Amino acid sequence: MENDVTWKYPENIVQCEWLSKRLDNENIRVFDCTTYLLYRDKDPSKPYDVESGISKYRESHIPGSAFLDLQNDLSKKESPYSFTLPGFLDLKNRFQNLGVGDPFHIVLYSRNGTQWATRVWWMLFVLGFEKISVLDGGYDEWVRLDLPTEDSVRKFNPAKFNTSFRENIFVGKESTLKAIGDKSCILLNALTKDIHSGENPRYGRPGRIPNSLNIPFHKLVDSNTGKFKKPEEAAEIFNSMDISSDKTILNYCGGGIAATLDAFILYQLGFKNLQIYDNSMSEWAMDETLPIETDKL
Fold it and tell me: Phi then psi for 44, rounded to 5 degrees?
């Protein structure tokens, strides 16, 4: 693999050292996006309980950062699934009320895996807001570098931004069903190998969406630091699965969270046609009318 692979949009990834020198910059607004999933074994219709990261935020966070509560403030309340995307106009208003918008550069981080930050990144990207970055390595890397923290709660004044909705990135089960037999599309599962193979029936019916490939999201981050793998390492992972940029890549996972990390790395590698199945296996596995496949165990 050539070593000159670079991130196509490096401004969308910032390092802790960079941010630590800009904590007093009033044009940068930092948000903790942490959410916890507490997995359950007995009820596939509710594979996990969702716990907000607000209590951990109140204990300690990056100085000056506010908190974004993904499930309670930024997801569709009436949905049977935990993190369904609200309507775009509604979502835009929610973000603006929380202080996300112009003229600010928004930096997102989480403390239990970068997938929470990439989820919020994509939610803003589909609304047309682009001055957004993910903090590489998140809160754990911040603490590892012995950078300062605080416990005072911060809330930002409302902001505004102009929208240019990207309608075709987050998709539903109908689009996903059509993609199964579409040779111009690759279905990519970001869940762990045991769920993909059908060994772990976490979401009800065991298995995966037929014809899908598997790149678990954690394979794209360094297991020691939680930082993104280097561009050439990430590119090699996708190349090894024959995932090419001339195809549409439809990413899915359990509830539309881990898939956003795979999609974010693909975006950084220059892939243009990217989609995310919003409710993912939480919806798919519970719908008996939808096809599913497993490895022959």
Answer: -65, -20
Give residue 2's pLDDT: 47
Is-contact 228 265, C-beta < 8 A?
yes
Q: Tell me the mean pLDDT per 10 residues along the chain, length 297.
A: 82 98 98 89 70 96 98 94 95 98 98 96 98 98 98 97 95 97 97 95 93 98 96 98 97 97 98 97 95 87
**Which tokens go with 126?**
């589909």
Distance CA 219, CA 32 (A): 23
d(CA 159, CA 103): 8
pTM (predicted TM-score): 0.96
Residue 50 class from Cβ within 10 Å (0-12 exposed, 13-18 middle, 19+ buried)? middle
Mind listing the domains of the chain with CATH numbers?
Answer: 10-144 (3.40.250.10), 170-284 (3.40.250.10)
pLDDT of residue 125: 98
What is the identity of the amino acid at 47? P
Cα–Cα distance measured from residue 83 to residue 72, given in angstroms and rounded to the nearest whole number = 9
- pLDDT score at 50: 85
Q: Which amino acid is at 68?
A: L
